[in-house]
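Lab notebook page, bench 4
Experiment: in silico fold of construct C2
Operator: M.H.
Input chain length: 121 residues
Purpose: comparison with the prior construct
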Amino acid sequence: MTKTNTSTVTNPNDRKIPDKWQSSVKAMKAVQVAFDMDEKIQLSIRKQALDAGLSPSDQIRDILGLPINKRPKRPRLTVSLALSDYQLLAKKYGLEAKQQLDIKRKLMEELIESVNLIDHE
């Protein structure tokens, strides 16, 4: 039988939190703040972030003089696709909706082609 390592940080139920989860304790205590600002201000902050290679959240932290996690982030774009989206894309690419990996490859090709066309205009 193996004993789980625990530390002195506890949750409201007085259970000890395992050591491997300790790094998440700070994140669990953070509160996300949303800003309802003019669209031009939001766009400007997003552009500043893009130019600086930061996320909009990190750009806001920089503007406010708060520390920023300097750890490099994996650059990636995301999009949420519902089953109906996969069905539409499958039809567009001549695939079946269950061929999600193939659809993803086609999406990447289409995005790259789109950027190449814009860059060469």
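Observations: The chain has two domains: 22-71, 83-119. The first helix runs from residue 25 to 29.
Next step: discuss at group meeting.
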